Amino acid sequence: MKLAFVFVGGGKEEWLEELSSDYLAKLKPFAQTEIIRLKPTKLGRESAEKKLAVETAELMKVLRKDDLLILCDERGEAVSSRKFSSKLVSFFERGRPRVVIVIGGAFGFADEIRKRADWTWSLSTLVFNHHIAQAVVLEQVYRAFAIWRNLPYHND
């Protein structure tokens, strides 16, 4: 099993780098895992459409045609940790070479990416900054595997 996290922005924080390393180590027994960080463009809010187009092009370069793609977006489906665990396991059981979980840039995802997605996951009805969203995604993916393997981590 291969798992990739693609994060647009939100790097360079020491605590996040440490947390990311910790979760990559925890995920190692379950899947070959990598984090791909894409730099957001330096364009300002007044150039939102251009910024989204540039970030979409960069994201499309990272995606492979046979990836199973999960987008993190507040307009996606909100699920419990147990439900997420079963969804994630079912995605791996589909036999695709790689499951990719993406947190987009400040303006989200272009329609091209949305149409390409296999599932859109809402972390919350709240909107998080990139650092917090990345921490939540990494922890919930680890929790999903722990639930699947019946490890003493998740409490209902």
Task: Provide an overview of this structure.
This protein is an alpha/beta fold and 156 residues long. The protein has one domain (2-148): Alpha/beta knot, CATH 3.40.1280.10. Helices cover 43% and strands 22% of the residues. The protein has five helices and five strands. A five-stranded parallel β-sheet has the order 2-1-4-3-5, with helices on both faces. Strand 3 (68-78), helix 3 and strand 4 form a beta-alpha-beta unit. Helix 1 packs parallel to helix 5 (130-148) and helix 3 crosses helix 5 (130-148). The mean pLDDT is 93.
List the helices and strands and how they pair.
Layout: E1 2-8, H1 14-27, E2 32-38, H2 48-62, E3 68-78, H3 81-93, E4 99-103, H4 111-116, E5 119-122, H5 130-148
Parallel strand pairs: 1-2, 1-4, 3-4, 3-5
Task: Output the keywords.
156 residues, alpha/beta, Alpha/beta knot, 5-stranded parallel β-sheet, 5 helices, globular
In summary, what is this structure?
By secondary structure, this protein is α/β, with parallel strands linked by helices.
Mean pLDDT: 93
- The tally of domains stands at 1
- Give Rg in angstroms: 15 Å
**Share of β-strand residues:** 15-25%
Coarse morphology: globular
Q: What is the number of E strands? A: 5
Spans where pLDDT lies below 50 across 5 or more residues: none
**CATH top-level class:** Alpha Beta
Output the CATH homologous superfamily.
SPOUT methyltransferase, trefoil knot domain
CATH topology: Alpha/beta knot
Order of helices and strands: EHEHEHEHEH
